[in-house]
From TrEMBL:
Pfam families: p450. The lineage of its organism: Bacteria, Bacillati, Actinomycetota, Actinomycetes, Streptosporangiales. It comes from the Bacteria. This is Cytochrome P450. It comes from Nonomuraea salmonea. The keyword Nucleotide-binding does not apply.
Length: 405
């Protein structure tokens, strides 16, 4: 099969929320650069092999499509949010020296050392949330009780915004990440509200001197030409609030669901909690429900998977498929809680790799450690095949994670 023989409808079909699409293995073997039709009706290329995905993501020439590019649209006409359509006020530079400058500024806050210092407060929050869940009684939705609120409390504290507004943040995040869940008009109205909210918050912080991330960026930007413009600061604050809770909240729920889907996995961790770190990495690799995939716009001709793609091509990286590539991961279809090394692609690669990965890892480890200690008898309250995927958003997740103990 060649990329011209078949056009695949994207997103691909999943039989269950925890099993990969059947096409992945065949595509990796016979058609690593496939032609896909997006919900918009536009066509793009999808790459499925680990080597090709890593090479593209690590190439500094290519970045996420912007409104200025004539890229394949993700969302159908009249649908989609800012991140899905590219029609947004997000002005963070996507490549070149501007992007490196932005990463240097924000990266000062997201160090592994700083994240480690947050562990005690994260653990206390996780314990409190689990205690509240237990008090309400089983069965419970772990996503609503723990995996959503924990990252929200953490990122709100880091940004210095009130966690009491978390449901508003969730609503705005869904609008920003919508492919088909909201109309473009609804999404634009939501983004206007979000922008006004965050602009007011930044203005308040300019009047004071705070130790949170926004306060740090304001201070760094005080010297002319040294920091961020007002528009970049607003875009950064909005983007971090969305990214800082939406993806990790979903990752916690999926991790626990995968571990409980095979009772032996959970029991092994209960018996040996020292495996938590490698188990978190393996859950990030094993996850087939990572969302829409990372998109790159080819501003010039490039070769991928033995095929020359012309400038102007939109390429979608199927990281979940790359993470199941047998040429890189032995027994890739099995969940090995002690797997090491584990060069998964879940956080991307190269100059655009996820800035918040140290934070996400810490939150996932804390959530798992605390659950193992406080609820060793935890189990799914429904068969794994009954778990439902979230639909219509760029991010991947489960609608609910029903548990009992």
């Amino acid at each position: 099969m060649t990329s011209d023989e078949q056009v695949l409808s994207y997103p691909l079909h999943y039989d269950t929320a925890l099993d990969p699409p059947k096409e992945w293995e065949d595509l990796r073997g016979r058609c690593p650069v496939a032609t896909i039709e997006l919900p918009s009706g536009d066509r793009a290329k999808m790459i499925t092999r680990h080597e090709d995905i890593k090479a593209l993501l690590a190439d500094p020439r290519f970045a996420r499509p912007t409104a200025a590019d004539n890229a394949a649209r993700v969302a159908p006409e009249g649908s989609g949010g800012a991140a899905a359509t590219g029609d947004s006020a997000m002005v963070v530079p996507m490549k070149g020296e501007g992007h490196l400058r932005w990463r240097r500024l924000v990266g000062k806050y997201f160090t592994a050392r700083r994240m480690a210092a947050l562990r005690p407060s994260m653990t206390a929050t996780a314990e409190h949330l689990i205690d509240e869940m237990v008090a309400e009684g089983a069965p419970a939705d772990l996503k609503a009780a723990l995996s959503f609120p924990l990252p929200v409390y953490v990122i709100c504290d880091m940004l210095g915004v009130p966690a009491d507004d978390r449901h508003r943040f969730s609503h705005w995040s869904d609008m920003m990440l919508s492919v088909t869940r909201y109309s473009q008009e609804e999404a634009r109205a939501g983004m206007a509200e979000f922008s006004a909210y965050m602009s007011g918050h930044i203005a308040d912080k300019r009047a004071g001197d705070t130790d949170d991330l926004i306060g740090m960026l304001i201070r760094e930007s005080a010297g002319e030409g040294q920091g961020m413009s007002d528009a970049e600061l607003l875009s950064t604050a909005m983007g971090l609030l969305v990214a800082g809770h939406e993806t990790t909240a979903n990752a916690i729920g999926k991790m626990v669901a995968m571990l409980l889907a095979d009772r032996g996995r959970w029991e092994r961790l209960v018996a040996d909690p020292s495996l938590v770190r490698t188990a978190v990495e393996e859950s990030l690799r094993y996850d087939v429900n990572l969302g829409f995939g990372l998109r790159r716009y080819l501003s010039e001709e490039a070769e991928l998977g033995g095929e020359v793609l012309p400038a102007g091509t939109t390429v979608l990286c199927a990281m979940g498929s790359g993470n199941r590539d047998e040429s890189v991961f032995e027994h890739a279809g099995e969940m090995d809680l002690g797997r090491s090394p584990n060069p998964h692609l879940t956080f991307g690669a190269g100059p655009h790799s996820c800035l918040g990965q140290a934070l996400a890892r810490t939150e996932l480890q804390v959530a798992l450690e605390t659950l193992l200690r406080k609820l060793p008898t935890l189990e799914l309250a429904v068969p794994p095949a009954d778990l439902k995927r979230m639909e219509g958003l760029l991010v991947g997740g489960l609608q609910e994670v029903p548990v009992r103990w």
